[in-house]
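Q: I'm writing a short explainer about SH3 domain-containing protein for a general audience and would like to include a description of its predicted shape. Could you first generate the structure from this sequence?
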Amino acid sequence: MTQYLIAVWDYTAEGEFELSFKQGDRIKLLEKHNDDWWEGELNDQIGFFPANRIRLETTEVVD
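A: Of course. Here's the predicted structure. Afterward I'll give you a sentence or two in plain language.
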């Protein structure tokens, strides 16, 4: 099952392993590494981002 997240605020990556996104972007959740940093995919880019910048989408997609 694939989970998607919606960006609540813009985030600009501060390192090469981070993921930048804009408010309203739909991010595919890959892994929750801890409560603060998650890993996701957006536009064929994979990276880490702060979990407090997103919210879980209410629907999930079954693979």
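A: For your explainer, you could say: The chain has one domain: 4-56.
Q: Perfect, that's easy to follow.
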